[in-house]
Amino acid sequence: MTPTATYRLQLQPDFPFSAAEKAVPYLAALGVSHLHLSPVLEAVPGSTHGYDVVDHSSVRAELGGEAGLRQLAGTAREHGLGLVLDIVPNHMAAAPRHNHALWEVLREGRDSAYARWFDIDWEAGDGKLLLPVLPGPIGDELSALRVEDGVLHHGDQRFPLASGTERLPLPALLDAQHYRLAWWRLARTELNYRRFFTISELIGVRVEDPEVFAATHAKILELVRDGVVEGLRVDHPDGLADPEDYLRRLNEATGGDCWTVVEKILTGEESLPAGWPVAGTTGYDALRHVDGLFTDPAGAAELERSYRDITGPAGDRGGYWEGTVRRAAYKVVVHELAAETAFLTRTAQRVCAADPALRDHAPWALATAIRELLVRVPVYRPYTTAGGPSPEAAEAAVPEEAVRQARAAFTVEREATAVDVVRELALGRLGTGPDQTAFCARFAQTSSALRAKSVEDTAFYRYVPLISANEVGGDPGGPAVSPERFHAYCARLARDWPATGTVLTTHDTKRSADVRAGIAVLSECPERWTELLKRVANVPAPDPLVAWQAWQTAVGFTPAADSGVPDGSRMVPALLKSVREAGLHTSWTETDPLYEQAVTDFVEAGPAGPGRRTIARFTRALAPYVRTSALGAALVQLTMPGVPDLYQGTEREYFALVDPDNRPRFRTGPPDEKTVVTTAALRLRRDRPGVFAESGTYAPLYATGPAAAHCLAFCRSGEVVTAVTRLPLRLAEAGGWAGTELVLPAGRWSDLLTSPEREFEGGAPVDLAVLFSDRPVALLSRRS
Questions:
Q1: Which residues make beta-bridge pairs with 723?
Q2: CA-to-CA distance for 645 and 176, rounded, in angstroms?
Q3: Is 425 helix (H, G, I), strand (E, B) or coil?
């Protein structure tokens, strides 16, 4: 069953299934059709997110166990709601104490029945599984290690012992194990298992193995077969060896009737692979297009020029944003992903050694080629099929221009041919056997990790002219989206992926939609932003970059003070996370306490402290325009092609920064204007599903007159019209709606957002000043 709309709930020990059950009547009245639950399988005790799964065979006891989940499903069903589950096929928690499968691998080594579960390179190093879990070098930690009851202890960590080794002296005992305990810092270069991005605490799972797939999906599939679950959100499919094969297997196992979306990040105009048997993505591509509608291109360009003048970012021939991404990618591939590139180099060496024509490619040349091509993959990952991709797909995944640039890293032409070898290996067009398969898969998996870490977790914090654009799937180098481009995107969705997911705020967004709306309005008044920076220049900042980012954060976040939400204490950790992710002066692994204290002092003395009074005056003048954009974005997302997902609390004003700030417990609150808009749209989708169904249509509507560009309108299936105001500050400065009209399709139309409902006659021009006289948005339904 395809949902009409979903509502994401973040489950955690202090918000279990029973608490979610109490929210069901409220959510049913809101108008959604399904509850979207964060991961529910057994996780590390105390986990607040559930992505650190330790046991796929059981529902998490801390949430209420399987009985609690089934009871929640029953209550939801009584109120006409279904459940959608977030599943995590790519990784598990690398916590031996809680992960039985990993415990057995550590105890028995490569002979364990569970060894096939994990991507472990047993041939690397000393042939043991590296466990980088110690706070210091092993020599410093020996005194903290002890054996009790046949188990090795270090603090609250527990490790199994190989049979017959428990009575050995400690040095001999450590040498006798199938694993090697090590300082956590060795993970960067010595790690020999695949992980989630650069997080060594999450070990990759080989779901491409049929037995592993069966074991790790049995409980989820049982819940689907029993009707407890009607939809699935697949976390990070790009981390899998073969995403399409996995999704086909999942589709077959669920009988093809389970609505399934994937957390796939699309870059630029990239499309979801047509062969994937899913309804679509989780919606970051929709977020980028909706946000772009409410960003002024001219003002964004002016902000960028001012940003460059003040902060002095380095550029290159590809541009400032592209240059930032490239430098960040080099940093990540050389440092954080050194172990992954070392695996690729070893594997490429074995493939070349097996072919007489390739044996003279030196390891350093292969390593260089791997690095140079990885940083130039233009999308999150290349996809290959048996025998390699088509020429068109190959060019999209690893373009010839990328090959040309990669070859420039070599001074000897003959050595540069290593680039061609690596490209053909990556695309599955060179070599045969397990090593070729392993290289092809791991290159793609590493590409995904590199893109995520270098763009989302590094460049987004280094290049910040307009931070509302720095969202997953976004394009800070070109944040604006024209109505024509948006209509073209929606037409593609309606044709190819009509049941895809759409979102504006998630548990992973760096700023909630309402915060982003407050920042995006700066693109309509860059001169006001420049004046604001002059007024707050008396608060000394550690550097211009952090000052720019902190004051923009305050602009978007200040309205939270009017909602009774503590703010200053929440801004400090968000800004500290920003500077650590940027890695320019401090980082997660090499912290600079003096710099971080300077950041904290600056934020507390300025943006999160006394400076908020200045910001409050500034945002008060912009509030009507922020309101217009926030309501417009919400209505567009709720009525465009696709299935809208609402994050908990976003049916009303919701101000949140990056995690963990964006993962509070679910709470209801007093309805506001956004609630009125949201409820009307959700109930319309519920009551008239055919209008928004996969068979429905999408048709752009265009206003005429001097302010036509400020209206975005479309018609769904000839029965519902959405019309919103875009770039409202520019509109006000230009004189408003005078002389601007919109012709509605023939018929009689009622605006569901007015009380009493106002009616309009189709087929004739409607004055937009009249249409938007009550609200800057309109939701019109054809009267029967």
A1: 713, 778
A2: 51
A3: helix
Residue showing tokens 């590390």: 44
* Closest CA relative to residue 275, chosen from 496, 553, 2, 561: 496
Contact 207, 240 (CB under 8 A): yes
The pLDDT score that the predictor gives to residue 394 is 72
Sort residue 197 into left (φ over 0), alpha (ψ -120 to 50) or beta.
left
Whether the pLDDT of residue 133 is over 70: the answer is yes
Average pLDDT over residues 683-693: 96
CA angle at 296 for the pair 293 and 300, rounded to the nearest 5°: 125
- pLDDT band (50, 70, 90) for residue 315: low
- Spatial neighbors of 492 by CB under 8 A, at least 6 apart, are 271
pLDDT of 760: 96
pLDDT at 487: 98
Residue type, 408: A
397 token code pair: 């995944």
3-state secondary structure of 481: coil
- Tokens 């955690």 sit at which residue? 12
Q: 284-302: buried (b, 16+ CB within 10 Å) or exposed (e) per residue? A: bbbbbbbbbbbbbeebbbb
594-598 mean pLDDT: 97
Name the phi and psi angles at 399, rounded to 5: -65, 155
Are 655 and 559 spatial neighbours (Cβ–Cβ below 8 Å)?
yes
Give the H or E element holding residue 394. Answer: helix 391-397
Tell me the C-alpha distance between 562 and 511, whole Å: 18
Residue 782 pLDDT > 90: yes
**Around Cβ 722, how many Cβ atoms within 10 Å?**
21
Higher pLDDT: 355 or 730? It is 730
Residue indicated by tokens 């490569």: 110
Above 60 in pLDDT, residue 564? no
Print burial letters for 697-713: b (CB count within 10 Å at least 16), e (below 16). Answer: ebbebebebebbbbbbb
766: tokens are 């409607």
Region at 312 (left for phi over 0; alpha for psi -120 to 50; beta for the rest): left
Q: What is the pTM of this model?
A: 0.95
The structure tokens listed for 756 are 């009493």
Cross-sheet strand order for the sheet of 643-647: 280-281, 259-262, 231-234, 82-87, 34-37, 6-9, 643-647, 501-502
For residue 163, the surrounding DSSP H or E stretch is: none
